[in-house]
Automatic annotation (TrEMBL):
Keywords: Endoplasmic reticulum, Membrane, Transmembrane, Transmembrane helix. Its main location: endoplasmic reticulum. The keyword Transmembrane applies. The lineage of its organism: Eukaryota, Sar, Alveolata, Ciliophora, Intramacronucleata. One of its GO terms (cellular component) is endoplasmic reticulum membrane. This is Ribosome associated membrane protein RAMP4.
Amino acid sequence: MPSAQTMKLRSNNYKENIHKQGKVPKSLLKKEENLPVGPILLGVFLFVVVGSALFQILNVASSGQDV
């Protein structure tokens, strides 16, 4: 069993921490920078989508059809 002095010290520390609740510096908070999709996969996806859109626009413009 801890001594009375140890219990008093722990109690004082606990009381001090109660008043600091919600005032944690931002450097102590965990940063979540996990992207659900990797940058390479995102680049390939954008290349396919934008490329196919440009290809479709060029096909429509060269054939002279209305959309």
